[in-house]
Amino acid sequence: MSISSSSKPSPALNIGIIGFGPFAQFLAKIMIKQGHTLRATSRSDHSQLCEDFGISYFRDVRRFLEADNDVILICTSILSLAEVLKSLPLHVLEQKTLFADVLSVKEYPRDVLLKVLPEEMDILCTHPMFGPESGKDGWKDLAFVYDKVRVRDEDTCSSFLRIFENEGCRMLEMSCEEHDREAAKSQFLTHTIGRILSEMGIKSTPMSTKGFETLVQLKESTMKDSFDLFSGLFLFNRYAKQELNNLGLSFEKVKQKLLDMMDVQQNLKDSDSCQQKCP
């Protein structure tokens, strides 16, 4: 399901970001451009970078949680999510807050958030289907998937979603389960094939075809992401293992067809040789 695209200005939000790596920085630039107030905290010291962005940086996580955030955006890695969330002193939260994540898997963060967060906190699971490379020229027509897992404050949730809607994203509402099923068939397979091509060491040549150059670009784009991200797509998406098995089975089927054709050609060759020798 998609929500209609509009250009309504989004009311300014106080958005706190947990984890200020490259993807969080990429999102922050647009949020700042739209007039939202940002705060950030991270295990790595990004205080100077946040100062350059005009973002308040909190080394003290407790003070960060007490900073009157309308939305807390979780931008940790998949692998560190549970550890980070369990380390937060969530009992100090003084107002109802919308917690949103942007991880590339959805059932896993949904389950962790439901388990860890106080019941009065709202939960929105999202996945911008783009990153700093694919979204460098704008977000128009790029997919943004979301699931309102537990939302009672519709105004805050709508204002947050409008950040992406106003940038021209294709807004796709679907369950976390449906997202993971489809992502295993698309995003995970894309990264897997890119990693395989990297292991093969493919590179451009003077006689490269356009199709081969597409493979080279796939390898290069997927290898820009960390192995932690790739392994997270596998470890925390219950549909990924089956797609990995399907990829292996499909490879074996194609390989067998080629070997069968080789046998046919060899039999024809042997038959021709016999006819030439036999009177």
TrEMBL record:
Ranges for domain Prephenate/arogenate dehydrogenase: 13-279
Record carries keyword Oxidoreductase: yes
Gene source species: Jatropha curcas (Barbados nut)
Name the UniProt record assigns to this protein: Prephenate/arogenate dehydrogenase domain-containing protein
Lineage top rank: taxon: Eukaryota
InterPro entries attached to this UniProt entry: NAD(P)-bd_dom_sf (IPR036291), PDH_N (IPR046826), Prephen_DH (IPR003099), TYRAAT1/2 (IPR045011), TYRAAT2_C (IPR059064)
One BP term from GO: tyrosine biosynthetic process
Keywords, alphabetical: Oxidoreductase
Pfam families for this protein: PDH_N, TYRAAT1_C
